[in-house]
Amino acid sequence: MTKSFYSAAQSGEKRSLRDDLRHAHERRILLEAIEAAPGPFAVYDSEDWLVACNETYRIVHEDGFRALEGQADIRYADLLRETLRASVPADQLEQAVADRVAAQRTGDGSPRDRYYPGKGWFRVAKRRTPSGAVAGVATEITELVETTQALQRARSEIGEAYAQRGRFVAYMSHELRNPLNAILGIAGELRRTGAEAGLVDALESAGRQMLEVLDDVLDHARVDQGKVTLRPAEFDPRDLFAEIADRYAPLAGAKGLRFDVVTGELADGSVVTDRRHLGQIIANLLSNAIKFSGEGAVTLEARRLSDDMGRVWLVSRVTDEGPGMSAEECAELFSEFARMKGSEATSGTGLGLAIAQGYARALGGQLSVASAPGEGSTFTLAVPCGIDSNDPVAPPAATGNEGLAVLAAEDNEVNRIILRGMLREKVPDLTVVGDGKAALDAAGARDFDVILLDTNMPVMDGLTALRAIRQAEDLRGAKPARVVSVSAHLSDEHRAAAYAAGADFCLGKPFSREALLGALLGGAGNGAKRADQ
Question: What is the pTM of this model?
Answer without folding.
Answer: 0.41
